[in-house]
Amino acid sequence: MNSNQSKVLVQLRDSILKGEFVPGQRLAEIPLAEKLGVSRTPVRLALTSLEHEGLIEQSPSGGYQMRRFTAQEIADAIQVRGLVEGFAARLLAEAGAPRQLLRDLHACLDDGDQAVNKAKMDLDDYAAYVEMNDRFHRLLMQGCGNVALQRVMDMLDGQPFASPSAMLPMQSSMEEGQQWMQQAHRLHHSLVQAIERGQGSRAQALGEEHVEIARMNLDYALERPELAAELMPGIRLLDGKTRG
């Protein structure tokens, strides 16, 4: 994914979370491209990614439309993602990560440091972090060598807000979002360190802890629906239903 496409994906995802679209609303490429000041190609690719994330769905009349989803399906997918990534990290730590994989992971850490460790992030920094974050988690899953786990993760990526970066924009401000990303990236560093040291149990625990940011965002929205709707209007896409 190139930087332009990443930026468009971040902008569209952010628009969804800010409530600029309602369930059932058709998302047409041309109006979106004109709104963002880009060609149709990055918009088309971004819409494909958003469908894979479960945020939008194919429209009966062609193209895509907004969908509604439940808080329970988001919570379930996030929880399972933590278990899967934690186990993948443990496998890597115990088997010994290849040197090239470690170099690639450290390159992600460096890119993430450049994006978040500054006085104030802008949209380009935000897009760079999202791209790095997706790459980091993809390397982790591919590197573990467990095909069954990789298939489970592919399925989870199709659930709403369960992909690695899907909930990063769910903050009341860019500044608050930067603080959350800094915290998440510190966990990236700790996770790579545990893998390098062969600390399987620690790597697994860190992998499971890493998804807590997304779960905390969701819990915040459910516990304070009125305030959450004011700060994050897109939370209205949730119907709030949970099991039991």
Task: Describe this protein with a few key phrases.
Arc Repressor Mutant, subunit A, 244 residues, 3 strands, mainly alpha, 68% helix, 2 domains, Four Helix Bundle (Hemerythrin (Met), subunit A)
The N- to C-terminal Cα distance equals 40 Å
Would you identify the CATH H-level superfamily of the largest domain?
A: GntR ligand-binding domain-like
CATH topology of the largest domain: Four Helix Bundle (Hemerythrin (Met), subunit A)
CATH class division of the largest domain: Mainly Alpha
Total tally of structural domains:
2
How much helix is in the residues? 55-70%
- The largest sheet has its strands arranged as 1-3-2
In N-to-C order, the SSE pattern is HEHHEEHHHHHHHH
Number of helices: 11
- Average pLDDT number: 84
Total beta strand runs: 3
**β content, as a range?**
under 5%
Our Rg estimate from Cα atoms comes to 18 Å
CATH architecture of the largest domain: Up-down Bundle
Q: What structural category arises from helix and sheet content? A: mainly alpha
* Main beta-sheet annotation: 3 strands, antiparallel
**Poorly predicted residue ranges:** none
Shape: globular
Structure commentary:
This protein is mainly alpha-helical. It has 2 domains: 3-66, Winged helix-like DNA-binding domain superfamily/Winged helix DNA-binding domain (Arc Repressor Mutant, subunit A), CATH 1.10.10; 71-237, Up-down Bundle (Four Helix Bundle (Hemerythrin (Met), subunit A)), CATH 1.20.120. The protein contains 11 helices and 3 strands, in the order αβααββαααααααα. It has a 3-stranded antiparallel β-sheet. A hairpin with a 5-residue loop joins strand 2 (56-58) and strand 3. Helix 5 (99-116) packs antiparallel against helix 8.
